[in-house]
Amino acid sequence: MGERVVLIDGSALIFRAYYAIPSSFRTSQGLPTNAIYGFATMFRKLLGGKRPRYGAVVFDPPGPTVRAEKYPEYKAERPRMGEDLFVQLEWIDELVRKHGFPVLRVPRYEADDVIGTLAKQAVEAGHEVVIVSGDKDFAQLITDQVKMFDPFKEGSGVTYDPELVRKKWGVRPEQFVDYLALVGDKVDNVPGVPGIGKKGASQLLEQYGSLSEILAHSDELKGRKKTTLSENRELALLSQDLVTIVTDVPLAEALPPERGLEALALPAEPDAAALDAFYGELQFYSLLTEGARDADADVGERDYRQVAGPEPLLEWIAQAEGAVVWEPCFEGLGDEPGRLVGLAVCPQVGESRYLPLSGPHAPPGLREEGLAACERWAPLRVYLADAARPKAAHDAKALWVGLARLGVELAGVEFDTRLASFLLDPTKLIPHRLNQVTKEYLQRTVRELKGVVGSGKKQVAWSEAPFEVARDHACHRADAVAELVPILVAKLEESEQLAFHREHDLALSWVLGRMELAGILVDPDELGRLGAAFHEELAGYEAKIHELAGKAFNVNSTKQLGAVLFDELGLPVIKRTKTGYSTNQEVLERLKSEHPIAEQILHYRALAKLINTYTDVLQRAADPSTHRIHATFQQTTGATGRLISTDPDLQRTPVRGERGVRIRRCFVAPPEHQIVSADWSQIELRLMADASGDENLVAAFVEGRDVHAFTAGQLFDVPAEQVTSAQRRIGKTVNFATIYGQGATALGQILEIPRKEAKRYIEGFFATYEGVRRWLDETTERALEEGYVTTRLGRRRYIPELSSNNKMMRQAGIRIAANTPLQGSGADICKLAMLELDRRLRAEQLAARMVLQIHDELLFETPLGEVERVSALAKEVMEGVVELKVPLVVDVGVGASWGDAK
Question: Which range marks the domain in which residue 349 is found?
């Protein structure tokens, strides 16, 4: 048995990589890298730990090919390669060479032909060949010695041998050329024989064996097959020629003929240092560190120690010239980290100290009494609470909340590297964890927490991890933040955003921290009753589905559900996935008219989502002793700047329908309190009116009209006061569809109307609001020129999708460009109002607390004696926080629960 020869279809891999990775992948100098990065990750995955003895990566050559010379229409309809992909090709060649593989291109011959020729030579030399490609044309080359591996099939890839070829296409590999000659290939513009499909082709080849025999016996056939084969004999032979892979390509220019197959010999290992340098140049830091070096190593000489006592610690800190970095260590994983159990401090790069706050390694006194009560550590408490002592952190809110839960005050934080990274480019590193930010700005990573405490069944508490490992990890993180601070400060100064960072984003952290500490009260009994009622209702839907199906099965199993719907009930197949039938919402919506089971499944899934997302989750999330839910408010997750709550996600709590009201009624005020809800009305439409200056839209809001009825009146040519509720619903949907950049297809699906009718509604909207059309066009044009859009307060959102060669991605970028100035400005206004309301509540020494923010709504837990004042204050601040061409309107409600206050 000879060696294994791996021949990789590089051209196929490039296009897969280009479309698989977002166009936002670029270096800091702006070089597109999505195809390079995708190719690199695919290449690493392909090789795994097994390097073949021989190998090559083959690409299509530039310029015309022999097939195009024979048939100019061959591949003529394929789009030209975009500039953003073209500039990456040389880098991909270099990447392949760094891995030790030869790069082959032969003028006038496609990669298929070069691979076919090399495969033939390798087999003649007694070797086994693996062709790596997703191109079905290679099925013609498959033998017992030649296999094709398609890395894109079924997750981990599929290897084709002669038996699998026969099973998939119904023909033997040696018949595959004739099979393609009959059916053609739309992708490559190979005509084939009109009227001969896949099934017909395989049947003909089964009967006659080859194309030549089929054509020789075409007179024996009947009906359309006889006619089309007789009329298209030359087309069949042309197609046969086009799809036949050449196996005698002259390779002298690409490979030294005297070396033969040895020209494809690979080194035992790639040059790791060269690859590291390559990845570093392209800022592929995740590839650089995966297996290349330990994440916490190679950072030079570092001084990491445990804190000896409060006096030497504070004396050491006093030598710092700038902000001192503090890094919190929590007991758990994730965004809900649990109890604060340690602090790492770094006053200057290269020197960090670790202070365990609990456990066997904590200093005496701290271990028994805790940081808040231990007299010996009072000087540290004084330092932490001193606003005149500058401090920095990565996610300062987590540090602030962690200390507050221990009863320790924190002040003087003037820089947060996580918030700074988000402000510089919100979309690039979401959610801007320290590991992501250090990759971007320091060209290295820090070890993930699971590297210290483990994961899964082997996970231990932080205090149970090896102490030296935990200490060095904490110190290294603090050290990395200290390195980041001057870099990010300089970048914010350059973009004139440093003051904004401190006065807005950082200041809002403390408001959100107070909300997280307060939490929101839930009624556990009501939650329990509601959960039981929902589960009972869900069982009813399940029973109805089983009845309609005529059998019991697992409704949550896509595989079983697909079998019931399409195999047993015979419903039309709308869409397939890689593993079977699609049963997603779009499919079920289209099946509603075919069978009542589809609607029942939709009801079942909607209710199951409420159970899994709310009633069950909320019961687990509530503190068992206080019945309060302490969600975490994320500032660096929403690309538009919107706040997002996690653990649990309260932002998507349903607002409409009986179920939504019942869920919201589980959020309650404590005794002698009420919930005050303040909600901006149509804020994004008002921002659209302000930004566009459209006369009709501005007038509608200034005059206090019902803007949805006004739009509907224009669409249906009736006075606004005569608009029906159904027409108003359409007007409302059209208004908001415009904000979110939805086209006629999406609007038609929402309204369940033909696309043509939806298009007429959109045209009617822009005929009414011509200023909005102009504003959208100008905003998009400016975004295309500058590469970003800005919100009202000047936050930038870069949109790399706008420069993509992929039409769908570019259209998505245009929608982002239209929506972000509105949604992002709405988020800005909400944050400004929260800052002012928090200041006023504390300045007036009111006991009311802001406890929840949900997009355009704020909730306050308010003592009965303060309800009137807080309601008026919320309305005053929220309506007056910015000045627009149209009034901001805030609806205020009061009730014993959130549901009652709406």
Answer: 307-495
Asked if residue 527 is part of any domain, the answer here is yes
Residues 602 and 561 in one domain: yes
791 neighbors 820 (Cβ within 8 angstroms): yes
Query: How is residue 812 annotated by DSSP?
Result: H
What is the token pair recorded at 442?
Answer: 């320091």
322 and 437 both lie in a single domain: yes
The identity of residue 494, as a single letter, is E
What counts of helices (H) and strands (E) characterise the chain? 40, 22
Please give the tally of structural domains in the chain.
Answer: 4
Residue 628 identity (one-letter amino acid): R
- Has residue 408 been placed in a domain? yes
Q: Which residues lie closer than 8 Å to 629 by C-beta, 6 or more apart?
A: 519, 520, 522, 618, 621, 622, 623, 648, 650
CA atoms in the 13 A half-sphere facing the CB of 379: 10
Q: Tell me how many degrees the CA angle 780-782-788 measures, rounded to the nearest 5.
A: 85
DSSP β-ladder status, 632-634 and 54-58: unpaired
700 plus 565 within the same structural domain: no
pLDDT of residue 300: 52
> CA nearest 293: which of 179, 445, 164, 410?
445
User: Among residues 78, 58, 56, 57, which one has the least CA distance to residue 67?
Assistant: 78
Domain shared by 315 and 443, yes or no = yes
Q: Quick one: tokens of 342?
A: 């340690």
Angle subtended at Cα 515 by Cα 510 and Cα 519, rounded to the nearest 5 degrees: 150
pLDDT given at position 6: 93
Query: Consecutive sets of 10 residues in the chain, 902 residues long: mean pLDDT of each?
Result: 87 86 73 88 79 90 85 75 83 91 91 93 92 91 93 80 92 92 85 86 88 84 81 87 90 76 86 83 69 46 85 89 92 64 93 90 87 92 95 96 95 96 89 89 78 73 82 93 95 92 96 96 94 94 95 93 90 79 88 92 92 87 93 92 90 83 94 97 94 94 93 91 92 87 83 88 93 93 91 89 76 88 94 97 97 94 97 97 96 95 84
Contact call for residues 331 and 482 (beta carbons, < 8 A): no
Q: Is residue 391 part of a domain?
A: yes
Upstream peptide bond of 648 is cis (omega within 30 degrees of 0) = yes
CATH classification of the domain holding 579:
1.20.1060.10
The enclosing domain of 377 has a CATH number of 3.30.420.10
- The structure tokens listed for 874 are 């919320």
| Same domain? 541 vs 487 | no
Hey, how many other C-beta atoms are within 10 angstroms of the C-beta on 857? 20
Same domain, 411 and 326: yes
Residue 633 in 3-state DSSP? strand
Cβ(194)–Cβ(232) below 8 Å? yes
The CA distance from 415 to 390, in Å, is 9
Specify whether the CB–CB gap between 296 and 473 falls below 8 A.
Answer: yes
What CA–CA distance (Å, rounded) separates 131 from 146?
7
Say if 192 falls within a structural domain.
Answer: no
Q: What is the pLDDT of residue 299?
A: 47
C-beta contacts of 310-313 below 8 A and 24+ residues apart = 310/376, 310/377, 310/379, 310/380, 311/379, 313/345, 313/353, 313/355, 313/380
What length is written for the chain?
A: 902
- Shared-domain flag, residues 319 and 356: yes
Give the residue carrying structure tokens 């805030």: 890
In 550-591, alpha helices (H): 558-562, 585-591
CA distance 215 to 239: 14
pLDDT of 28 reads 65
Q: List the one residue out of 869, 868, 888, 867 whose CA is nearest residue 878.
A: 888
Give residue 172's pLDDT.
Answer: 93
Q: Which two tokens stand for residue 687?
A: 């921002």
For the chain, give percent helix, strand, coil, nearest 5. 55, 15, 35
